[in-house]
Amino acid sequence: MRRELWAVIGPFAVSGVLHLMRPGLFESIIPAPLRRWKRELVILSGVAECSCAAGLLHPRTRRVAGWTSAALLVAVWPANMQMSADLASWAWRHGDAGSWVRFAVSVARLPLQVPVIRIALRAGRTDPVGITPERGRRNGERSADSPRSGA
C-alpha cells in the first residue's frame, strides 16, 4: 500500500470515530439548509468515513473506497466552509487571538483537501489485480511491441 493513502485513511478513521462518539461536535457545521437532519447527517458521515478508511486498507476494496472517499471529501466541503464562516463570525465578535487562529487554520485547511481528493482518486484508479486501465496488462508487463533489453 502506498504511504500517501495514510493521508486519507488516518484522518477518515479518526474523524469517523469522533463523528460517531461525539456527534454534537459536528452538528454546528452542517450547512443551514440541511440542519433539520444534522444528527443523521453527522452519523452518516461518520459511518462513511470509517467505511472509506477500512476500504482503502485492502486492495480488493481500494478502488471503490478511493472513488467513494473522493466523493465524500467533496460532499463534506460545504460543511468545512460553514465551519470557517462560523469561526470568522466568532473571531469578529470576540476578537481574541485564539479565535483568529482557529479561523485561520480552518481556512488553510480548505485548499489542503484538494491533494487529499487527488490521492483518493488515484486509489480509485488502482486495479486490485494490478492491471493498469490504460494499457490493459499487469503492472510491469511489456506489450509485444515494447523494446526488450539485451535483444
From TrEMBL:
Compositional bias (Basic and acidic residues): 134-145
Tree of life domain: Bacteria
Annotated spans, Disordered: 129-151
PANTHER family associated with the record: DOXX FAMILY MEMBRANE PROTEIN, MEMBRANE PROTEIN-RELATED
Protein name listed in UniProt: Uncharacterized membrane protein
Organism (species): Ruania alba
